[in-house]
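The protein record filed here:
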Amino acid sequence: MSSTRMPTYFLSHGGGPWPWLKKEMPFYGELESSLQAIPSQLSRPPSAVLIISGHWEEREFTVTSNPNPPMIYDYGGFPEHTYHIQYPAPGSPKLAERVQTLLQKSGIDAKLDSNRGFDHGAFVVAYPIFPKAEIPIIQLSMKQSYDPQEHLAVGRALTPLRAEGVLILGSGLSFHNLRAMMSRDPSAVHASKAFDHWLNQTLIDSPPKERSQKLINWYDAPSARYAHPHADHLIPLMVAVGAAEDERATQIYHEDHFMKNLAVSSFRFG
């Protein structure tokens, strides 16, 4: 990793507001440790953080520009106190405008949203990594098309941010079939392992150009459509890869017993 450029990450963010449910959800220890280790992997504290969450999509790419982002409790069925969680990190209108400019210079339409706050795909990873909530954070939406090429292109356009100290985090989940996860479908075990193996092989072992092409055609991977019936929790990966397209990938988290028996992973690029 260059000492002057931040790496990028694709993080499996777990389920619901788990960092605030240690007693009810005690099985997130490995994921939590992997997130807490991220600051030690950086050559310096980031100037700001840009998060692409699997919980926000728009018709066109959209950037949060609220200087004091509110909380969005976009989950259901959890204890009352989880609807009062606060993660008071500041936003950064200046960085939001910088992101918009970079995208527009690359021919990518982008708009600002001065009202939107942090969804749980953002704050459940931000809290373990930066518990003091002092570093400015903005979010970039996915585009509803879920087109891998478009999202890789967004990552490429945002590459200069890394030299400016901005940490780019794609927040999703490497296996995200909610129906299978909730029903404990036995098929999910094989499917999660098959897709996770392909994902690791693609990201870590493939040359950069081949890696990007495989990601563009991710739906051809083993068990791809079972692992991701909807692409929302995979597409943030494309932005993280695009912003570090020629750089090495490293697995920073993996377990085969997520929710008892599923294989999931997280990755660093650069």
